[in-house]
Structure formats: C-alpha cells, structure tokens
Amino acid sequence: MNVALPHTDSTIINYTLAVVALPLLAALINFCLPVKSKVAGWVSSAAIVMGCVLSAIVFSKVWNQQPLHTQTLWFTIGQTKVYAGTLLNNISVLMLLLVSLIALPVHIYSTAYMKHDDRYGRYFTYLSFFCFSMLALVVIDSLVLFYAFWELVGFSSYLLIGFWFTRDKAVQANKKAFIMNRIGDIGLLSAIIIIFAQFHTFDIATLFADGGLVFKSIIKDGLWISEANQMPVIWQYVACAGIFMAVAAKSAQFPLHTWLPDAMEGPTSVSALIHAATMVAAGVFLLGRVYPFFTDAELTILAIIGCFTAFMAASIALTQNDLKKVLAYSTISQLGYMTLAMGVGAYGSSLFHLVTHAFFKCLLFLVAGVVIHEMQHIKEENNLDIDPQNIQLMGGLRKKLPLTFIAAIVGSLALIGIPLTSGYLSKDGILIQAFEWSDGRSAWLKLVPVGALLTSWLTAFYVSRLIAKVFFGEFRLLKHHPQLKMHIGDGGWQYRVPLILLAVCSLFPLFSLNPFFYENAWLFKSLKPANFLARENIYHSIIPIGVNILSVFVMYFAYAIYTEKRIFQFPQTGFLYRLSYNQWYLDKFYKHAVIKPVLGLGKFCFWFDRNIIDGIIHLLDNITRKIAALTAWTDKYIVDGFLHAVAALVQSIGNFARKFQNGKVQYYLYSMLLIVLILFVLKILI
Amino acid sequence: MITLTDFLLVGAVLFSTGIYMIVSKRNSIQVLIGIELMLNAAILNLVAFGRFDKLKNSGQVFALFAIVLAAATTAVALAIILNVYRRYKTIDPDEIKNLRD
After folding, report:
1. Phi/psi of residue A625, nearest 5 degrees
2. pTM: predicted TM-score of the whole model, two decimal places
3. Given this structure, which CATH class describes domain B4-88?
4. Whether ipTM exceeds 0.85
5. CB proximity B98 to A under 8 Å
6. In chain B, at which end, N or C, are there fewer CB atoms within 10 A of the end residue's CB?
7. Would you call A670 an interface residue with chain B, using a CB distance cutoff of 8 Å?
C-alpha cells in the first residue's frame, strides 16, 4: 500500500520486524544446538537484548505519533484481496516494549535458574519461540495472522507448562491449559469469520480505527448494518461472545480460568514471563485492539465478569498454601481488574494496569522462584520429603535472603496498591473510574465497583499473609527438623540483577513524577484522552485515601495473625473456608459437569464402535468366512473329486492293462488264448 | 476202419497237450517239446487232409516241408535256450522277465 514510505518509517518497520524475527532466529539456532548446550541461554538472551534496544527505539519514534501502518498483498481469493503487515500504534508499541522488557530479566534469570536442567537448550528454544509468537501477535495487522500467532502463543505456552513432562501433574496441567485455550480459540475464530462476513476485510486498522468500519456500523431494528453488508443483530452478539471466550481463555477470566493455577507446574521463570506478565495479557490486549466493537451492554457484561473474576480469585488466594498458586490466583484477580476496567470504559487504565502488573507480578514470581529454588536446595541437601512450594513450611527467610525480601516487599506493595508504587497509580485509577461509571446507572451495578473495592482489601490481606508466612517469624521447617543444614542465599548476579531491575520498574518514577495522582502518568494520558481528567468529583480524593488506609490496617492485621503474635486464629472448618480452599469447587464442577459426560460419551462411542460397528464387520467377516468355507468344500470335494475320479479311472484301467505286461512269456500266451477264446465265444453268440 | 475223424481227434489231443505244456511247464526244454507237439498235430492234419488230393499229394509235400522247418526252428530255439541259460543261469520262463517294459 504505502509504496513510498518516508525513510524513518521504513527504518522503524525494519526495526520492528527485527524485534519479531530475532527470537525466532534464536529459537531456530537453539533448535539445531545439542539439547544440553549452555550456549542456548546466551543466544536467546542476546536476541532479547537486541530486541529490547530496537523496540525501545521503535517505541520512542511511534509513541504519541500517527499510527504507522504498512501492509503488502498476501494472497487473493477470487475478488477478495487479503493483506498482511504491521500496525504500529500506541498500544502495540507499548506491548512490544513491555514484552521485550519483561522477557529480558526473565531470560537472564533463567540462565541461572535452569542451569542444572538436562534440557537447558530446549528450554531456551521454547522460550524464544514464545517471545517470537507474542511479539508478532502485538504488531500484526491482519486478524487471520493475529489468530495464527494467538494459537502459537497458546502452543508455546503448552510446551513450557509441560516442560518437565516426566511429572504427571505437569502433563495434566499443560493438557488442561491447551484444551481451555482451544475453547477460547474457537470463539476467536468464529468472531473473525463473522467480522469478515460483515465487513469483508481482515485488516485491524480499517476495522477498529477511529472512524473505521466498526464505528460506522450501526444496530437498528434488529439488524446489524455496515457499509458492505447487513445481517441479524444476533451475529454481532455471537461475535462478541466469541471474542469474550477468547479473552476469558487467554486471560484466565471466569469461567475459563482454571487452567492458570495448574499451569504453575511449569518452571517458575516461565510462570513469571508467560502466566503472569505477557501471555495472559494477550487477552486484554485483544480487548484493546477490538475495543470499538463492543456495545454498551456488552461492556457492562464484561465489567461484571471482570469484577466477579477478580473477587473470586482473590477469595481463593486467601487460603491457598502453595506459593505459586497464591500468585496465580492473584494474577487472575488482577486480570479481572483489567477486564473490569475495559468494561467500565477505563481503556487507558486497563492497559496502564496491564503494564504495571506485568512488572510487579513478574518480580513476585521471580522472588517465588528464588524461594522455591532455595527450599529445593534445603530439601536435597537434607534428603527431606517436603513440598518446596508449601508456604506452611517457610518463614523467617528475610534474614537469609535479604535482597529477595526487599524485592518481595516492593512487589507486594505494588500488588496491594500502596502509594509510591506503580500498582497504586493504575489500580486506583480503575477503582475511581468504576465508581464514576456506576453513578449514572442502576443501583445493582454499584456492586461492580464495590466488589472491586472489596477485592483490593482481600488482595492486601492475602499478599500480607504470603509475605508474613514466607519472610517473617520463625523458619517453621526448623521446628520439625532441628538438625537442618542451611546454606542458602540470594544467589548470583543472574538472580540479583533481574530482581533489582524489576523492583525499580515497580515503583512510581517510571510512570509518573507525581506518586499520588494517576491522571498524571504519561502512559495513561497518551492511551486515551479521557474526558474525566479533571479531578471533578469526590471519588478522586476519597477512594485512594479510603482504600489505602484500610489496606494498611488489613496488612497489619494479617501480619499480626501470621507472624508469631497469633492474636487470633481463623477457623478452618467453615463453609467459606472450604469454598475458598477448594477453589470454589469449580474444578470439581467441571469434572462432574464436563469431563465426566465427555468421558462417558467417549466410552459410549468406544462401546458403540466395539459392539455395533465392529459387530457388523465381524458379522460380515463371519459370513464371508462361511461362504469361503463352502466354496473351499465344493472345490475340494466336487471339482477336485470329479478330477480325482477321472484320474483314478484312468489309473485303474492302466493298472488293469499293465497286469498283462508282466514280462512272462507264458502269460502273454495265456492272454492270447483267452482273447481268441473270447472272440470265438462272441462270434458264436452274435 | 480208421476214418478222418480219428486222425483229427488224435491231432486235437496232440495240439491240446502241446498248448498245455507250453503254458504250464517250468522248463524251457519242455515248452519247446510242447511246441513240437503242436507242430506235429498240424502236420498230422496236413497228412490226413492230403487224402482228398490224391493226384498231386500236395498234403504230403507240405508235411515234409513243415517237418524240415520244425527241425530248423527247434535248432534255433535250442540255441536261444542255451544263450538264455548262459545269461540268466536258469531256463525257467517265469524267471525271465526282461520282456517287460
């Protein structure tokens, strides 16, 4: 299309393509290296470092400028021309930079974390492949290619979750993640098909830009009318539901969220990159891309589901004892916030939260990685049979792992949303806008911001519980095993540097010079020139204050309970506890409602195949056999029998004639006489 | 009075005796004797029927020829028997089966 690009533009496009292609190149090189090769880590890291630099350049050139859109003709079917290319606007360059920035510390961290793994090289192959898919996903401009990379992201995630495929749980987990994602993929595919049927194009820029085709389409009298076509409005709903399914599967929203906690079976560094910061953000990114497509009512549904997901996941995180599971549920909860923000129209805040969350959640996961690594170390050194991820066995680690402890505190405060951190800026923005949104609506929709508010206190509680159990108090494992040998520490620079880097990124200065007002964050300003920038109503003051004062109380409360003070112990038998501990029984529900019927259907099909289909075939088989046996019998006894009879006759005649030829002279004479006699007798008789 | 019938009867008896000897004896010499008996039966018949050709006596003449021929064949047959004996060390016709194919 744009044949005569300005020079700078074509440079930017080349840089973007390089950012996308470098990890793929690294994956290909690593694929050719031996499985154990230690070079692989440096190949992948080098690709990401270069990608990081280039994407920073691209970001600085494109941010807040005109979107840069190039495409070439990909293929033609009949009259339809399908184009493919890159679309660089604020949201895609932001994601491009974010993914490379998060991937960088994770790669460095992984070189140390996976050092002793037998399939070190393969790990980096997968990791680079994932980065390629994700980076391509954010810059691509065609829905068809978007779908392809969407699938590839799911696929590489599948590979990485099941990286330790000798563990049964990991295999179950990656299967579950893959199937859940497939359900979402079906939704996305059907949405793409409907959109193409309606607008006759796959081009994201043409479809969803300001004043694009989707803007011009209207819904009137039960018809969905665009310039090119019109169809019943039901199809618009179906397409929306399809997109929502895709979002729910990738970004772990209710009811398709159950794969994410299980996905924690993968290496922790993978969880940090994929299941906390980038891949799960793909769903929110998709929402951002197709945002104009949603009508007001659909956005409301989105907000309700986001709110419910956030609340449910936070309530589950309260009682989990697995370090990574708590973090996984907090991820689901935060993703719920992002969906909620999209639903209430806080487009900018949602993406802002996506970015800040990526940093602090990645940081928390890397911290978890260090802790698990050291617990594993203790386990192996002392030959214990413990679960290295169980927070009930930890405690007092702040003295052993000082740097990790500081990083964890920074990450946790950001997750709770305490001022001076990035999480405060983005999360309070969402809360405020949620309240503003609910103002002009029916009363029960007030539940959405209230639920979000409640969730933020729950977050404060479970995060404090986690930190208190892991880092404060006494080391509980020492009580059970007093002779424990402990040689643990923060680890080498590959651990320290990523933690420091991410911890710095989780603080406010990166996003806003004013640590208290989210409206001043540069990221937020550029994403959506929102019309409520002015601090016009009371929410802007009261919510941050209210939330944070209560959060601090909740944090202190949790700290007091879970360190040695033990002023109060929660009952562990109540209905609410069991509901939370069993993850709202959703897994069990799916097991009974979905898996069992599916297995039953499978068994029925097997039975049907075995008994009916095979039965018919066996019957035919038997009939054929019988006919064959009959033919064989006929052949043997009738046809062959006739021939044998002829042969026997001839033989007996021969034998009879042979009797006369026995070489005895006198016998010949006998015969002669006999024949003469017979001739005479005959002559007389006739 | 001796009639033609008597001659023919004697001839028939001789012939039958000859045949019997040929098919039943286990000595080639005896078989040869049987053959001679049959020849003589034939010669007897020639002579007996020669009575009806009194002018030319062709029956008698034929008989003379037949006797001479019989002597010749007997000589040949004895020579064969001798050779057979040399080869097989027996003259039992049952033992000599080389005529068989």
Report:
1. -60, -45
2. 0.75
3. mainly alpha
4. no
5. yes
6. N
7. yes
